Amino acid sequence: MLLVSANVNGIRAAARRGGLAWLAARDADVVTLQEVRADDSQLRSALADGGFGDWHVAHAPGSAKGRAGVAVLSRHPLKDVRASLAGEFDDQGRWVEADVLVDGEVVTVASAYVHTGEARTPRQEEKERFLGAVGDRVGEWAADGRLAVLTGDLNVAHTADDLKNWKGNRGKAGFLPAEQAHLDRWAAEHGLVDVTRRLHGPGPGPYSWWSWRGQAFDNDSGWRIDYQLATAPLAERAVSGSIGRADSYAERWSDHAAVLVDYAL
């Protein structure tokens, strides 16, 4: 099962820039999207034009027009879809999970878009609550012993290996110890595995986000904030992975790069 996760930075903008064509060319089994920024009809129209018209789709749009939105796309049937996470966040378009039936096995695939946050503000407190709710959910996965994977833009660089300018970002949202502690806890308490890091080995990088501004992309001054975090039974089946970094700034179709992992099912 080739699983590709991508923050598209707006599905319609990504389609215009060639992003859907790039994703379709990966020949994936499952694709997860973040920052879709579209209602259901707009998403399905873009997908139909982009080569995903016959795929199964689970979509949680954001209630605020033009913001957030997450989706799971699958060649394989979806047995169940859940978009609720602790109630508070149900209309924000930040969480959707689907049980995908692949060759007789059920794999739970979640697409998450975590808040950007802002240190020492209510926005950061909301981000912390969301991360806590995610932790509760992945704990349920672990207790069930299921094949499951959390994909998406978590807006957290877990360690200094995941951020080029880590010294300059100490004390800022995205690189706060309290945020990183959630990822530590998911691993220690629930056995969640950072599949990209395991397959790639030590950093620095590979990064998955670079600012549109300045020379960040050309200098590879990025952040690794996009992940595939799998439960132990699924992580054991991860055989290869990569980051879909564009060859040049001009070929970028999002400020993020896709995260690709192949699982032997």
Automatic annotation (TrEMBL):
Endonuclease/exonuclease/phosphatase domain sequence ranges: 5-256
GO molecular function, one term: endonuclease activity
The UniProt record lists the keyword Hydrolase: yes
Key words, A-Z: Endonuclease, Hydrolase, Magnesium, Metal-binding, Nuclease
Nuclease listed as a keyword: yes
Pfam families: Exo_endo_phos
Cofactors: Mg(2+)
Superkingdom of the source species: Bacteria
PROSITE patterns: AP_NUCLEASE_F1_4
Family membership noted in the UniProt record: Belongs to the DNA repair enzymes AP/ExoA family.
Record protein name field: Endonuclease/exonuclease/phosphatase family protein
Species, as recorded: Phycicoccus sonneratiae
